[in-house]
Amino acid sequence: MPLHFLQESRPGVQVRRRADGGDHIQQTDFSSGSVRRSILAVAAPMMIAQVLNLLYNIVDRIYIGKIPGEGTAALAGLGLCFPVITLVTAFANLFGVGGAPLCAIARGRGDREGAERIMCNAWFMLLLTGAVLTVLGIAFHKPILYLLGASDATYPYAADYLTVYLLGTVCVMTSLGLNPYINSQGFARIGMLTVLVGAAANIVLDPVFIFALGMGVRGAAVATVLSQLLSALWVLRFLTGPKAELRLHFHGFRPDFRCICRIAALGTSSFVMSFTDSLVQVACNATLRTFGGDLYISVMTVINSVRQIAQTPVMAISDGASPVISYNYGAKAYPRVRAAIRFMTQLGFGYTLLIWGLVSAFPTAFIKIFNHDPVLVEAAVPALHVYFFGFAMMAFQFAGQSVFKSLGRAGHAIFFSLLRKAFIVVPLTLLLPHIAGLGVTGVFLAEPISNCVGGLACYITMRCTVMPELRCGKD
Q1: pLDDT, tens digit (0-9, with 9 covering 90-100), for 44-94
Q2: How much is the pLDDT for 57?
Q3: Neighbours of 471 (CB within 10 A)
Q4: Distance between CA atoms of residues 243 and 120, nearest Å
Q5: CA 83: distance to chain centroid?
Q6: How far apart are CA 3 and CA 427, in angstroms?
Q7: What sign does the CA torsion over 350, 356, 361, 367 have?
Q8: Closest to 46 in 3D by CA, of 186, 142, 156
Q9: Distance, CA of 15 to CA of 243 (rounded, Å)
Q10: What are phi and psi of 9, to 5 degrees?
């Protein structure tokens, strides 16, 4: 005879429901027990989820880079789409990453109604901005791509991918933007499955559409859109179902513009980080086309792909710590907040130091994941060494940013997002190639300089402003 039980609990405490022969969910307890275990319980599935999410575009690049006879040019065309794809991610982060800490803080205070209001307003804005980006992106894709550095040789590949990808913008916004609200409730495994559903579909569909159906670059985009649709449906099914602690609904909904402004204010830092990533990609593509041609745009596409793979675990560590920090800050458990910050920083630095060593020791292995063209590999190896120098400093940037966002310090988070990318990387990308004959090397040198200067500035400021307040027990 099946066992039926329902264990109710205060927000943040583990919940198990069994109603029909063994169905249950597990929710991480942020309020008690080991802080390290809480962080790892959220970070581990989030890391898997982020790696899987990365596969959406990484798998596209792997398959596209190996299209017989045109892989290198097609890879350059796909690289030209990155700024637009990153911009879509930026808007998803604006309302997703922006609202999730506020949602977690509200849960920590026991304000379930307020937490649900934040989530519903965020979804409203995700749908609205997704629709606007779709229309504008498709209408103006040609001038945008040429502005981003397309040539007559690479434009057809870029246009084939981007016009299809933009049709799935609302799905991308829903899956990326709402998943943080699943994680903020402690359902990290559900959040991981959100991405797993789409990533697995993309891995299967990519070779079918690219090679079997002969659709090439356009086929990669079709596979990605269908995969994101599945992820979006999974998110909506969970957040509107009985297992979620906070429910997503539009029954009697009216936009709360004050709430939306709070979400956007905190999400601006994540938006700026993604938007400035897009700005950096534009500057890099334009400068590389001048100093190195389409080949070096392909090289940057590969190096960016390696960087995204390398930084995903440290992002997962900081993102995993974020709901733990936010919840305990809302509950005024300041010693647990300090412990979470210390553990997040130590683990992140140890990982980035390790991956820096691996990339430096085996650059060719990482490059050949995406392309085997000997000319591209020869150009990419020295560029990868320069680009990854000082990679461990990124851990301090992620740690500092995570703390500022988790505690609702929007001003600090926005400033340091702008500092590293807009005020350091972009100017250096444009200036260094003209200095001492650096050329394309100057473009790749801008990143490690920004990691060292921006990362340390962010972390030191956090230590000097946040930690004393937490020791004194101030809000």
Answers
A1: 776 776 677 676 667 788 888 778 778 778 888 888 998 999 899 999 999
A2: 64
A3: 11
A4: 17
A5: 14
A6: 64
A7: positive
A8: 186
A9: 10
A10: -160, 165
For 209, the token pair is 């559409």
Q: Residue 184 corresponds to which amino acid?
A: S
The token duo for 5 is 């039980």
Tokens of 129: 């901005």
The pair of structure tokens assigned to 67 is 């299209």
